[in-house]
Amino acid sequence: MRRLNRKKTLSLVKELDAFPKVPDSYVETSASGGTVSLIAFTTMALLTIMEFSVYQDTWMKYEYEVDKDFSSKLRINIDITVAMKCQYVGADVLDLAETMVASADGLSYEPAVFDLSPHQREWQRMLQLIQSRLQEEHSLQDVIFKSAFKSSSTALPPREDDLLLTPDACRIHGHLYVNKVAGNFHITVGKAIPHPRGHAHLAALVNHDSYNFSHRIDHLSFGELVPGIINPLDGTEKIAVDHNQMFQYFITVVPTKLHTYKISADTHQFSVTERERIINHAAGSHGVSGIFMKYDLSSLMVTVTEEHMPFWQFFVRLCGIIGGIFSTTGMLHGIGKFIVEIICCRFRLGSYKPVHSIPFEDGHTDNHLPLLENNTH
């Protein structure tokens, strides 16, 4: 009984077989089928290689939400060279929320040479070229995010020429911590001093003819310092054409959380609008000579996450490629074979000529084909 039940079970399973085997004696091969199979296998191999390259690649996913963190401090990273001696200039931040000067103790004043060496000038040209490409092709920003900490440093390289050159400029570099509200970082004539109604600069002791706010921004960023990230103002150089000239940068800062397979950092992206004008009170152009960077924070926060295609999705796409090519090439081969057979059939029918009727003496005609006679000798 057990053997009988087993045979019934096996026969039932055989009836459910969706992949019946065809004996080799019933399979007919052809040159056209072999050609189509070769094309199909080649296409499958190429698409499989391309799909594998897509599987190895990663992409950046952008998510937006309201920034709810207003209690923490905002870090400002600064590296600016001004074409004036350090004793003539001062830098500070005016916090618009409390109308008071934020502490600028994190900044260092270092005498420097304003003109760049040939190697430094080449670095600056390369950085400006990258900046122009980033403005045209925004997708390059994803490449920069993924290469953070892996690419070379974007800092200005040290001078390779004579170090005994007389310093004619002041390099202001370091970082500041300010409240996460709109503010104004500025560099102007004279050192800043506290004032009950705000702040002031000791500019009366500086000769007006020594004003020169030509400057070079080697680095300016907000938030955590991430090596390899190129910011919009990195490599910017402005040359003043007048002693009384004001340079203004209007910056919108966007909090950004960066999560890649290499790093996780809380940084900030920003966009900037530039403006410069000559101070002339007689012509109605009022203001103070200097460099002013007015920044404001966006209420939205961007989360940038590096993502990778999961293996199950890659496997499903690969199966779809192989099965789709098999089905499509089989269908196209069948249609092509059907069309060829129809054309050949018509050609064969057209190759037969009609047989002429044979007249008889009584006026009738014989429409039958003549019989072949075998002459025997």
Automatic annotation (TrEMBL):
Listed name of the protein: Endoplasmic reticulum-Golgi intermediate compartment protein
Protein's cellular compartments: Endoplasmic reticulum membrane; Endoplasmic reticulum-Golgi intermediate compartment membrane; Golgi apparatus membrane
Signal peptide: none
Alphabetical keyword list: Endoplasmic reticulum, ER-Golgi transport, Golgi apparatus, Membrane, Transmembrane, Transmembrane helix, Transport
Highest taxon listed in the record's lineage: Eukaryota
GO annotations of cellular component type: COPII-coated ER to Golgi transport vesicle; endoplasmic reticulum membrane; endoplasmic reticulum-Golgi intermediate compartment membrane; Golgi membrane; nucleolus; retrograde transporter complex, Golgi to ER
GO biological process terms held by the UniProt record: endoplasmic reticulum to Golgi vesicle-mediated transport; retrograde vesicle-mediated transport, Golgi to endoplasmic reticulum
Start and end residues of each Endoplasmic reticulum vesicle transporter N-terminal domain: 13-98
Annotated transmembrane regions: none
Function description: Plays a role in transport between endoplasmic reticulum and Golgi.
Family matches, as Pfam families: COPIIcoated_ERV, ERGIC_N
